Amino acid sequence: MATGTPDYSFLPANLIPDDANPAWMSKGDNAWQLTAATMVGLQSIPGLVILYGSIVKKKWAVNSAFMALYAFAAVLICWVGWGYQMSFGNKFAPFLNKIDDALDHHVLLKQTFGGYKFPNATMLYFQFVFAAITLILIAGALLGRMSFYAWMAFVPLWLTFSYTIGAASIWSPNGWLAKKGLIDYSGGYVIHLSSGVAGFTAAYWVGPRETKDRERFPPNNILLMLAGAGLLWMGWTGFNGGDPYMASIDASLAVLNTHVCAATSLLTWLLLDIIFFEKPSVIGATQGMITGLVCITPAAGVVQGWAAIIMGILSGSIPWFTMMVLHKKVWLLRQVDDTMAVFHTHAVAGTLGGLLTGFFANPRLCHLFYLVDNYEHYIGLAYGIHNGRAGAGFKQMGIQILGVVYIATLNVVVTSIICNLIKLVIPLRMSEEQLRLGDEAVHGEEAYALWGDGEKFERSVHNSVYGEDQELGAMQNKV
């Protein structure tokens, strides 16, 4: 036997350790975590790529989809390089962690933090897809006018100086808000409130779309939009079901609550559209679906099923009110051109979810999720009052409110600084010609090549990819 190799000859074959499956690893937990991460990744590509590319005007379909695709790839490289360690590494400051590990197999194959039964490589992949979708959600506020080159710079800068701070503060075991007992089951604060506030702030600095686009911006393909929305909805199974970091009973509850809240919210939004506008809007129903998914995210596995229904009713009505009524009356909301209304669907719905979590969080379910018996934290106000611990319930509400203020302030300040720094080097907005022409001017490509329009692809720098040649182009021109 080679030197240094353990001698297991004295053990029965069924007891010999498997180096590829160490004793601390659960194959089931690892498989579920990788599956959940891939489901979240599918929410972005192709989910949001399809949703963005189809819900905008035809002239912006390529640009909108490409902003999402680029963000996904850029975030992965930054996340592996430094983002993951800044978010979940060894403590450097109350709101930031150190970059002190080379992510080779000696680190990636070790058991991850918290004693969860899978390796660092799995945790890195799982956390990456959450970081990526946050940037893609921000893009939704900027569709139809932000310079693609400015977006290329914005993604790594915002990930580095905003997302990592929010994740380190709330999700890292060393985070100051984590230690205070903030409940953010799966990203109501770190992802949705962050993206909603950052998107709205960036939209302010980039400026509005072209006047014609702002006045009329019809989707170019509603059926395709629904396909993207469906991927987003079903992918949320992994989004919330993966956050216990194990294939547990709490994961099952989180998945069920997620879909119950989303369906309730969709139906609530639909009924409000029918009552007040006398038409059942499919775009409105999609918005209601999204607000329900966002609202339940910070609470998914720590609230009862009946609470998920109440949250769905509120998430289908309060963001509807802010979007359809308040938006037309509040000066600031009217001034900022938020293309996909991410302020309402993510900032408002995320804040609502965070506060309702502080009200409905069940201490028994919190114990299943956090695996601690902490009687100072993790009790919703409703249960605090019911159990004679109103003080602890009010304290939890205060912590949830503190989290909203912290994340909102962080993203307004950091996003503003990033946008103004980029503006010194790269224009934030497209040129007037690009705004007028859209994809053809920005990328030299168009989303739909109808008969007679196909020759426009001759101007693509990647013309050969499509198998076009000059003879075919000449024939099309004659036709």
From TrEMBL:
Gene name for this UniProt entry: AMT25
Protein name: Ammonium transporter
One GO CC term on file: plasma membrane
Species lineage: Eukaryota, Viridiplantae, Streptophyta, Embryophyta, Tracheophyta
SUPFAM superfamilies to which the protein is assigned, alphabetical: Ammonium transporter
Record's keyword terms, sorted: Ammonia transport, Membrane, Transmembrane, Transmembrane helix, Transport
Family: Belongs to the ammonia transporter channel (TC 1.A.11.2) family.
Database matches in InterPro entries: Ammonium/urea_transptr, Ammonium_transpt, Ammonium_transpt_CS, NH4_transpt_AmtB-like_dom, RhesusRHD
Compartments (UniProt record): Cell membrane
Main subcellular location of this protein, as a coarse class: membrane
